[in-house]
Structures are given as C-alpha cells and as structure tokens.
C-alpha cells in the first residue's frame, strides 16, 4: 500500500479557505493531511471544512483562542488518535496530534516559533526539551511494535545553511540559532529520525517551504525550509518521492507556507 502524506501550515484555516485551500483539498492526492496553525475552534471551521466527506478529521485547537492549532485528516479511519504528548505545559497548546493507521503513526507538529531575548524563546526551548524525549520514546515504542512513524509539520527551525536563502543575516535570529540547529541534529541522531526531503535533495538549496509576505520574498525564492517530514529509518527506506508544492505565482498562494508531500510504500 502507498500512503501519500502531506503537511502544510495553513496560516489560519478560515483565511486559507477563502484563498483557495478548499479547491486545493479537492484535488490533493494525499491520503493523510497534517495541518498546522489552524487558529480556529472546531465550531469556527468554515462549513466546507467542517462537513468534509471522505475524510476522518481530528482537530487540536489551542486553549489560547486564535493561536496555533493542529489537525490530521485521513482517508482511512485511524485506530487511535492522541492530542499532545504527555506534557503538562503544552498538551492544551494546539501543537501536537498523532494518529495510528495500519503499520504507521502520523503526527502533526507546530513547534513554537520563538523570539530571541523573550519569553517566547524560553517557551520554545522548554517545548524542544520535552518533545525530544517524546520523539525518542515514540521511536522506541514503534520499533517494539513493528510500526513506523512520520512526524510532519512546521518545525520552525532551519537545520542547515542550505535550508534558508539569507542564512548569513539570520545567524542570531530565532529559527537558525546554533542551539536550535543542534537540537534538530539530536532529533536526527539521538532520536534516530530521517529528514526525508533533505535525503531526497541532498545538494539542493531548499527546497524552501515558507516565504515572508513582505517584499518580494516569494518571487525571489528567498525562503526558509522549516516544514518537514521526519521518519523512522525503516519508513525512510520506503519513501518513494517527495516534493514541495510551491505555487506557480504569488497570487495563487493560500498560505505563506507550501505543502510538503511524500509518498511511502508500506
């Protein structure tokens, strides 16, 4: 069986629905769709999203209204879903949701963005510390059960210089700090995950997944690669292809992020 998994930060699902997300959803080849930054309670979802047919939808809004929020939509009904990862501080923050499909756990992640010198950066670091423990334990449990894992989402960290256009100017900015990049390295080494898109595009700048709405960042492809799919090693070997679904033109965008899609042969 082939699972096509897509992840995208919608930058507010109500706004995205008005800009073309619904039309995109009607044509996507994804079997599983992970959303981030939904920024809506389930009662606030647009009718065409709330009444989707052909999808099993799970939503994890944030306790802080109008912020964060993640979701997972699957064409096959999961055997289990879980909001949060056992964190007293973060389980109600709308930042993590996972489902179990046959042989595969799929998770949607919205890691805090942070801001250097503020409480937001402290929050991000606390999240990272707890989440690395969860990732490690999730991998261990999956291996024992003969399952694979893919953690999709907006990681809000560019790992390498190739992952953002203007890396020299951002070395002291949240999202490209040495300690953040070192943490992602630990996800790949200590926790044992694989960055699928980078594996498939080892020598390429990008492919970028987020572009600021300011200036001509999108037109100049001055972006960041912060939306990623990290998998357990066995699933990495079964990844058939991956792509970033970059809009053809600025005016066709329904988010400041682009969908990242990977096909897995299970």
From TrEMBL:
Task: Indicate whether Iron appears among the record's keywords.
Answer: no
The cofactor(s) it depends on are:
Mg(2+); Mn(2+)
Q: Known InterPro entries for this protein? A: AP_endonuc_1, Endo/exonu/phosph_ase_sf, Endo/exonuclease/phosphatase, ExoIII-like
The site (Transition state stabilizer) lies at 156
* Positions annotated to bind Mg(2+): 9, 37, 154, 156, 256-257
The answer to whether UniProt assigns keyword RNA-binding to this entry is: no
In this UniProt entry, which residues are annotated as the site Important for catalytic activity? 227
The annotated active site, in chain numbering, is: 110, 154, 257
Q: How is the cofactor bound?
A: Probably binds two magnesium or manganese ions per subunit.
Task: Report the record's Gene Ontology biological process terms.
Answer: DNA repair
Segments forming domain Endonuclease/exonuclease/phosphatase? 7-257
In chain numbering, where does the site feature Interaction with DNA substrate fall? 257
Query: What GO molecular function annotation could you give as one example from this UniProt entry?
Result: double-stranded DNA 3'-5' DNA exonuclease activity
Which is an annotated Pfam family here?
Answer: Exo_endo_phos
Q: Keywords of this protein's UniProt record, alphabetized?
A: Hydrolase, Magnesium, Manganese, Metal-binding
Q: Which family does it belong to?
A: Belongs to the DNA repair enzymes AP/ExoA family.
Protein name listed in UniProt: Exodeoxyribonuclease III
Q: Write the gene name.
A: xth
